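Appendix B. One record, verbatim.
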Amino acid sequence: MSHADFPAYLDHLTIAVSDLSRSRAWYTSVLGLRIEFEVPAQSAVAPRDPGGFTLFLEQRTDNCGHPRCVLTFRIDDIDKRSAELQSRGIAFDAAPQKLFWGYGAELKDPDGYLIRLWDEVSMKENR
């Protein structure tokens, strides 16, 4: 069977978080994700982006403090959005600038996961 016979599509990503309420608030207020559903019995919440990608947040202690992935979000206007977030007191590791991966900004979520933000226009203009 070839890859074309059985294509795979990334549907969601699960990350371990140390404080579910804090992470839920961060992903909704900072990145503007909307909650698709919650499973309180499993200490899990599923924020979803406008493109349909779901990020499962699971409160766990076995992997928190040692993030092992980078989450990259495309937004409408990186300069405008980062200025708005900074005015709200959100700290950035890298303000919008040309980085090794392209033009964008970097910040960390409450558990230390690296979050990269970029937009198509700025990325093309700053190659």
